[in-house]
C-alpha cells in the first residue's frame, strides 16, 4: 500500500502549513516545535496541553494540521479529534495522531474519529515532517503494515459506519468503475497501480478516487480502506 495518497490537490499557495501541537508534556511540545520550525514551509501557531484546549485552540486558530497526542488529561486525544472533526467541514484541519502507544484499538478509534494519519513517537524527525506535509494537502497517511493489522482485527461488515448516514445507499450510487476503484484502493493500490490494473490514465484514476470519496462522504483514502472493510466490499484475507 502506498504510504500516503489522497484526493486533494495541493493549493499552490506559498503560505506555510499552520500546525497546532497538542501534547501534555511541555518538553515534547518544545522538541516538536524545534524540529518543525526549521522548515520554511511549516509554522507552529500554538500549543495545547490537553484535549479541551486543543479543541478550543483549533476553533480559534484554524490550523491546517493538529498534531495530536492520545493520552492527555481532561479530554484525551481521541475525543478531541472527534470534537474537532464534528465541528469542521471536509476542508477543516487534518488531525495527525502521534503517540508512544502502538495499540490497534487506539489506531482504529483514531480513524473512526476522523484522524488523517497515525504515527508513533519513535519515528524520525524526517518522517514527522513528511507526514505533516502529506496530511496538510488532504492525503491520508498510514503505514501499510498497520493498515493490514488493524483491518484484519477490527473491521467487520455491518459495523458502525465510517461515512455518511446511509453507507449502503451511497455504495449503490457508485458506478461499476468507481466500485472497482474502491476495491483496489482498499487493497492498498496506489493511483499508478490502479491505472495499470484498469488500463486508465493516472489523471482519470485520480478523478475516480475523488468521486468515490465524495459519494461516500469520506475524507481520504485511509477512511476509504476502513469503509470498504466495514461495509463488506472487501474482506480480510479476501
TrEMBL record:
The modification 4-aspartylphosphate is found at residue 69. GO terms for biological process: phosphorelay signal transduction system; regulation of DNA-templated transcription. CDD domains: LuxR_C_like, REC_NarL-like. InterPro entries: CheY-like_superfamily (IPR011006), NreC/VraR/RcsB-like_REC (IPR058245), Sig_transdc_resp-reg_C-effctor (IPR016032), Sig_transdc_resp-reg_receiver (IPR001789), Tscrpt_reg_LuxR_C (IPR000792), WalR-like (IPR039420). Residues 167-232 form the HTH luxR-type domain. Residues 18-136 form the Response regulatory domain. Pfam families: GerE, Response_reg. GO terms for molecular function: DNA binding. Keywords: DNA-binding, Phosphoprotein, Transcription, Transcription regulation. SUPFAM superfamilies: C-terminal effector domain of the bipartite response regulators, CheY-like. The keyword Membrane does not apply. This is LuxR family transcriptional regulator. It comes from Micromonospora maris.
